[in-house]
Structures are given as C-alpha cells and as structure tokens.
Amino acid sequence: MGDLDLDLLERLCEAPGVSGREGAVRGLVRRELAGLVDEISVDRMGNVLAVRRGDGGPRVMLAAHMDEVGLLIKHVEEDGFLRVHPVGGVWSKFLGAQRVRVHCSAGGESLLGTMYESSDLGMPHEKGKVPRVDEYFVDVGLSGDLAAAKVSRGDFVTMDRGLDRMGDRVVAKALDDRVGLFVIIETLKALPGGRAEVIVVGSAQEEIGTRGATVAAHGVPRDVGVAVDTTHARDLPGVAQDKRITRLGEGVSIKVMDRMQITHANLLAFVRALARDRGIHHQLEVGLPGGTDAGAIELAGDGSPTIALSIPCRYPHTASEVADIGDITATIQLLEAFLQEVTESVLAPDSAGEQAPSSGR
C-alpha cells in the first residue's frame, strides 16, 4: 500500500459536525464516495448510505460515524459571553483555555472563541477541583448586543484544531471517528470488484447513543456488519499493563468484547486468522468501557454477526487525539482482506461447545 492520503484525513477531521449537525462532514463523505460506489443516498436520520454492488457474495455493512463530541450554545449573556451544553462525552477538565469555533445558524459564519470557566478555580479553597461543563463560557470578543445578533441558542461549538503530523503519528480533533470514515474510503479506493456487496453507512449521532447506526441497521438487509471506529490506547505513564486496552503502534485492534457487544466466535476466529495469515499487525481488545456502532448493528433486524475493527487512539474526546499511521494502514489492510475473503460459511452460528455433556460414566 502506498502513502496514506493525509490531506483527505485532515479535511475530514477539520470539518465541523457535532451529533445532529453533521452536514459539512456528510457533504465531504458523499463527494469522496461518489466515484467509488454504484448508489449513494441520505436517509431521514442523516446517515449516508452508499452501495457497491457485488457478484452474489455476502452483503457487508461497513459503518463509521460522522459526528464528534462538542457543545451547543444554551444562553447568550448580557455581556456577550456564551454558556454551553455538552453533546456526547465531553471531558470538562480538558476544556480550559481551548480555542473553539461557534458555528452560527444566523448568517452561516463561524466565530473564533476561547473557553474558560467562571468558578473560583485557582483559589486555595478550589484546589484540585475539576470544573463542570456548565461552569465554562465561550468568549468570542463581542459585545452583548453583537453576540446576541450573531449567536442563537442551539448553535454548535467545535474545537478549533487542525491535523498535524507528529513523528509517525497524527494529532487532531475528531479523529474519533473521521479516521474510521477515512479507512473505509481508502479501502474502497484500493479494493477491486469482488463477490461481496458493500453497504457503507456514514452514521449520524453515534456520540449520543449510536442512534444513526440503529436506524440504518433496521432498514438495510445484511449478512455481516463491520464497525470501524477508534478505541482507547492507554499505553501511558502510570497506567497498569492490564488497564491499557490497546497500544499505539501495535496494529489494528480486533474487538473481542466491549460494554455493548461480544463478537460472534466464528467471525472473530476468521478475522484473527486473516490478520495472521496476511502478516497484518494486530492486537486484541477486551474491556473498552464504551461501545461502537457494532453493538447497534448486531441488535437490529435479524441479529447479523458484527465485529469492530478499531484504530487505537490516545486522548479521546479531546482537541488533541493521537493515532499511529501504521495502525491506520493496518486497519485498511485488514478491512480490504476481509471484503475479499468473507464468505457465508464464516457467518454460520458457532456450534462449539454444543455437544451433549458427558454423563461422567
């Protein structure tokens, strides 16, 4: 595989789109997929649905979510400061002094702002306290009247950070999960036509409860699902070896179990063998405290087997998420191999352990 198109990854990460406000990301994804698929549409939930027809093979749903965590404006104060409400799992302790973009519905402009908090943090009696999200405000440098004219309740706020190269890694806001979308797009670019029919879902509103994937999975017949998302890499100073979940630089993470899903045994064995046989760097993941679109896909419709392929990521849900370029490459390689080799027999219910128990005689 050649060098990754990091310009595309940069454009995906920099596009603004908190849950329910994914329009800019949706437009970019549609443009990138247009020449790679046979059909493309948007459903009523705002999911992008794209189909590449196959030649009688299994129907494979690939999902990666378009939304990012962020904030909504809930109040414009008389002096022009903006009060906010979280969208998704926002870590309040990482908001202080961050530069943000307020995306104004009136006039369509965006305003640069700075996040700060209005508690007495820094005073002796506040030592060690982590401010709540509702203690933060956004300063956009405007008077009260001008701020009220430009900013409306419900306007959304994203981190104001671009993508940068950092050694063999990239750092950006919204790698979760623009890198998943990137992996799917790059895989389709590299993938020759084959037996499998591929249904791509750019899902909406994952960060507030896998809502888009749930709707899409109820409406799209499939034989197997694959969610491509980030996962925690806690290979950090002071973190015990058994708490690290995944490590940067050790390859694509193959999901065994998280809070929302446990992977179908035959499917897991097939993917592990595929990675091993193709020499693709990989690691196994057990114990993510959250979940992915895989959990929603697996529970919708007829319970089709589903697996998550994840890109390890440090500092999730912050303005400076970090991923390893080699891990991204390995994820593309494994997804491409999966689409080339998956068959209906792989997806049969697991029969291991179903023999009659011994009587002990």
Contiguous helical run count: 8
Rg over CA atoms, rounded to whole Å, is: 22 Å
| Number of separate domains | 2
| Biggest pleated-sheet summary | 8 strands, mixed
Defining traits:
8-stranded mixed β-sheet; Aminopeptidase; 6-stranded antiparallel beta barrel; disordered C terminus; 361 residues; alpha+beta; globular; 2 domains; Elongation Factor Tu (Ef-tu), domain 3; 27% strand
Explain what you see.
With 361 residues, this protein is an alpha+beta fold. The chain has 2 domains: 6-68 and 173-347, Zn peptidases (Aminopeptidase, 3-Layer(aba) Sandwich); 70-159, Beta Barrel (Elongation Factor Tu (Ef-tu), domain 3). Helix content is 25%, strand content 27%. The protein has helices at residues 6-14, 23-33, 144-150, 175-190, 211-219, 265-277, 293-299, 325-341, and strands at 39-42, 48-52, 59-65, 70-76, 82-87, 99-103, 110-117, 136-139, 156-159, 164-166, 169-172, 197-203, 224-232, 252-258, 282-288, 306-313, 321-324. The strands form 3 sheets. The protein has an 8-stranded mixed beta sheet, sandwiched between helices. It has a 6-stranded antiparallel barrel with strand order 4-5-8-7-6-9. α5 (211-219) packs parallel to α7 (293-299). The longest helix has 17 residues, at 325-341. The radius of gyration is 22 Å and the shape is globular.
